[in-house]
Design a protein that fits this description.
Helix content: 25-40%
Strand content: 15-25%
Bound molecules: acetyl coenzyme *A
Number of helices: 10
């Protein structure tokens, strides 16, 4: 199979900033508790913007940075828990807003916080059979719409945003070698849907999910290293799903990853679900930390339960 590389990243977040102090006015919590337990200082919540606005903004920024035009895209996959509408999907709506060719394969995919990795792998597979060599991969979630404001242990965690990657597939390029996994579980992390008597709000057994995450990240990391026959030293940068700074710090310590080799932006955005990895990749590219030839080990985990990792190179 021919592999993909990232040509350009882009991201888009809502204008409204919600600080920990703002949240403390709504529920019984404090800046000190949120910061020390999660590393989150603020998050963005949609007020005027919708899911499609975020997707469109991120995709346009990624296309511009990649120097690729809409008519060159052959596949467009949006990783999300919930778009503005069930039908059309966010990807179908994007076909119209971006002017993607009508034979572009467009659909949404739900793998919760691991969605961007599932989408990257899917787009790599599909581009091998597509008539055009560029793909759009998005992660976008508006978790503020699914937040239970009666539950202080979850309402402090989530933020809204979108990140997008323009990827290129070329003969001879190595595959990203994604490792993906699922352990179906309906009690640790769930959000009821249509037909349920319960409201559509995210509920989570925080400590159990924490334990799952601190086991899943090293497992994914080891699998990706093994699949690519490399060690930690051969990786230029590490990007993990931004769910909790304490989880990330544990992994970084375990693998002796130097500070200049990993990124963290959970303080500014909270947990943005499928968007967290592409938003961070986009910021790192904008800061000049990820450039042509950079090899990034990316790991995600979340609801499902799902997990995944891949080695992604910048073109
Ligand atoms: N403010 C103040 N106190 C709080 C708050 C709050 N916001 N939330 C909980 N507490 C209290 C609890 O009531 C409890 O009090 P008690 O001891 O008197 O009963 C105490 O703090 C400890 O609660 P815990 O739930 O044990 O807190 P913990 O240290 O585990 O932190 C957290 C909670 C931040 C949710 C953590 O468990 C976590 O990050 N889990 C992993 C989340 C994750 O990785 N999710 C990824 C997937 S998300 C997705 O897919 C959408």
């Amino acid at each position: 199979m021919n592999g993909i590389k990232i040509k350009g990243m882009g991201h888009c977040v809502p204008a409204q900033v919600l600080t920990n102090e703002d949240i403390a006015q709504r529920v019984e919590t404090s800046d000190d508790w949120i910061t020390s337990r999660t590393g989150i200082r603020q998050r963005r919540h949609c007020a005027a913007e919708g899911h499609l606005d975020l997707c469109t903004g991120a995709a346009q920024a990624a296309l511009e940075r990649a120097g690729v035009t809409a008519d060159q895209i052959g596949v467009c996959v949006v990783a999300t828990l919930a778009a503005d509408t069930i039908v059309p999907s966010a990807a179908c709506a994007l076909q119209r807003t971006l002017g993607l060719p009508e034979d572009t394969v467009c659909f949404d995919l739900n793998a919760a916080c691991t969605g961007f990795l599932f989408a990257l792998h899917t787009v790599e597979c599909l581009l091998n059979a597509a008539s055009r060599s560029y793909g759009l991969v998005l992660g976008c979630d508006v978790l503020s719409r699914l937040t239970n404001w009666e539950d202080r242990s979850t309402c402090v965690l989530f933020g809204d945003g979108a990140g997008a990657a323009v990827v290129e597939c070329r003969t001879g390029w190595p595959s990203i070698g994604a490792v993906l996994g699922v352990h179906g579980n309906e009690s640790l992390l769930f959000c009821p849907g249509i037909g349920s008597d319960e409201p559509s709000c995210i509920a989570m057994e925080g400590q159990a999910v924490y334990k799952f995450a601190v086991a899943a990240i090293p497992w994914c990391l080891d699998q990706v290293l093994e699949k690519h026959h490399i060690t930690v030293d051969a990786v230029d940068f590490f990007v993990f799903h931004q769910a909790n700074a304490r989880i990330l710090d544990r992994v970084v310590r375990k693998y002796h990853i130097p500070p200049e080799k990993y990124g963290k932006n959970i303080d500014a955005y909270g947990n943005t679900s499928a968007a967290s990895i592409p938003i961070l990749l986009s910021e790192l590219q904008a800061q000049g930390k990820l450039t042509s030839g950079s090899r990034v080990l990316v790991v995600g985990f979340g609801g499902g339960l799902t997990w995944g990792g891949a080695l992604v190179e910048f073109a």
